Amino acid sequence: MSIQPPPSLPRAPRIYLAGDTVFRPGAADLFRTMKAICARAGLEGVCPFDGQAEVDDLAPGAQTSLLIARLDRDLMDGCDAGVFCLDPFRRAADMDPGTAVEIGYMAAQGKKLAGYTVDGRPYPQKVAQYRRAAWGDSLRERKGNGGSGTTEDADGLIVHSEGMVQNAMTEGFIRLSGGEIAVDADLLTAFGLAITNLASRLRA
Known about the structure:
alpha/beta
């Protein structure tokens, strides 16, 4: 009589942890905490550092940067969903541009997305603050019929994405996937709320 192997347990959904976290002080510790939050929700967190130990030994330059981009792309390909930090980056109004690319990449794959931020102000307010701090000017009312925004900056560029905390193509892709943007003054609390949202949708 042959002994049948026990049935394998289903694999936990793999979640790509995206954002400017990789650039922050104590990034490795922050990712460990984020992975623990994922595990408590029945998910497996995957961060950009995973499988990239060899990168630390390479000289900075175009080839190393391209390698990082390819490795990050491969990690995203192997994940079931993504969670993205939408915090303003380098004291500007907009989020980390690399994370914005990753939102578009995973959205194009039809994967479930969620977002989080410690700054829940509407995007135009962030632009207004940035312009005051960086250039000493103010936004002005835009002449037009509405559309993506009612104000413009001193260069005549429309201040778009009203009603959102970030550019409509970034936050919008998350929302179009069925996701939400979690907001809390504490980064890890906001992250945990986003993971809870993502976990419930992956189980549905």
